[in-house]
Amino acid sequence: MDARIKITVLLVGLGFLLAFMPNPSSKIFKLKPSELLEKSGSKEIYFSVDEVARFVNNEDSTVQLIDLRGADEFRKCNIPGSVNIPFDDLLNPNWSVYFSQKNMRTVFYGNGDQNANIVWTIATGLGAENCYVMEGGLNEWFKTVMLTKFEGERITPRENALFENRYKARDIFTQINSLPDSLKTKFFDAKRLQRAKVGWWVLGRNERMRDWEIVQIENSKIVNWYFDK
Fold first, then answer.
1. What is the rounded CA–CA span in Å between residue 120 and residue 134?
2. pLDDT tens across 158-174, in order?
3. Residue 152: which region, alpha, beta or left (left: phi > 0; alpha: psi -120 to 50)?
4. Could you report the per-residue pLDDT of 100-128, keeping only the tens digit for each?
5. Any idea where the domains of the chain sit in the sequence?
6. The 221-228 sheet, strands edge to edge
7. What is the pLDDT of residues 35-70, one digit of tens each?
8. Which helix (H) or strand (E) holds 17?
9. What is the reported pTM?
10. Superfamily for 3-143?
């Protein structure tokens, strides 16, 4: 039996279990098993690691990456900009906001495809829109993006663009994952604020220095970032 058929059969039973959970009206599958099976068999539910690398490089605000690994693995390394929703904690109501972003494309990934495919099926079955899987997971990300190298004497324009996309994503991945956890958070806060055109923003209090971190935005760029008592 095909793996996706097994997943679909499994999740039909899960649908009955979800109906007995608190607030069941929001947890009943909205798609029939046949509809889920048809959708899951389409290549259109997948983004390649090269496509995800492009999202990262372009800081695409219409894409949210969901890392399904455990918190410890996520802290060690993750694709920049990802949100950690551990697979074992998927049905926690606190995560519901990430599955109701109708104008966002949600891309699930784990170390491989299995958990991401299961979560795609659950999310899509429950009515979440624009859900996708990063094909191959982090295993493919490391193989294709992090370890890629050009071998040969000549390179075509297409190959050059492909390698440039990978090299840039590799640099971002390496730089961000080399930062302490506290600085990673501040980095992405700053990136989020850059989308604003102008204004002063308080990032928060630096407990070590007992100062407030304040950032000034003009024309979508950070022009001033300092500490103030």
1. 11
2. 888 999 999 999 999 99
3. left
4. 888 889 999 999 998 999 899 888 888 88
5. 3-143, 182-229
6. 198-206, 211-218, 221-228
7. 777 777 788 999 999 999 999 999 898 999 999 999
8. helix 3-18
9. 0.72
10. Rhodanese-like domain (3.40.250.10)
